[in-house]
């Protein structure tokens, strides 16, 4: 088996430009599922994935959603999940190059929307399968691929597909979930005032401005040091045990490695153990954007009639989405009342994903990292997805 793997990894190294070119093709398809105008691009990406799988001898069916019978096999089955849709991306967001044009940096990093999240994984699996096929190396297992095109919109339809396919995909198997993400509760705050946008030169200082109200509400959610101001958020977090705390002291992840990931010294905590705890076991709140706000180049002097802020709370084990929703909406409504702005408020949770309870930073993570990037082989790194 070791000789076969050597053949496989040699193929990867000898064909690195072809592999990168394949990822470049995938990145170039702007499959932004949250934009209805780009839904056709999501379908185009689905066809791109399907065509490559068919060429490699796979049986493929695009589900919208539906069911598919799996044939009985003697080998063990491994179900692989990835998604091929991406988040929106514009040059004005801070990208140095066209986000849908994969660029290889001098240090070997590959930069493009979806390069790592999650087209990199889709393409990685396709190219892995292709390498085995081209080198006539038999797969030791059966691979079942579940590639999704609506993950960035809350996985619309996936729950039904998984439920319909459960007897085929999960019958008689042990399943393992490896995740680098906490649970997620996504909220929106809509503040409205005038019936239409107004000119600040005429109405500035005359009307209560929705943008001012919204920014005060958003800023009040969380402190600069990351402390969440919503009462009750930390009440659900499991108490830190002595055994768990020892786990953090034994981790090899360094501050330098994290600073390299974020591109500078903007980390919250100085103490590495506390930093790792905030990364893995405590909830966090992030503000993501404002709809209705002027963001194009230039000096527009409009007073928006209505603006919508977006933020999310990343949850940890023991936190219930419904409880998080209730205390968050209640907090926003109380803070809004204090402002006496006479504007109108709508606050609600848009979507949520509950976290799987897991042991923090267990050995599986170490094995996963080594499997993805073994020291003996040069595999292109990806960044900024």
From TrEMBL:
Organism per entry: Smittium angustum
| UniProt key word Metal-binding | yes
Q: Which residues, by range, are in coiled-coil regions? A: none
Q: Which Gene3D superfamilies does this one have?
A: 3.30.70.360, Zn peptidases
Q: Which Pfam family, just one, is annotated for this protein?
A: Peptidase_M20
Q: Which GO terms describe its molecular function?
A: metal ion binding; peptidase activity
**Matching PANTHER family:** BETA-ALA-HIS DIPEPTIDASE, CARNOSINE DIPEPTIDASE 2, ISOFORM A
Q: What is this protein called?
A: Peptidase M20 dimerisation domain-containing protein
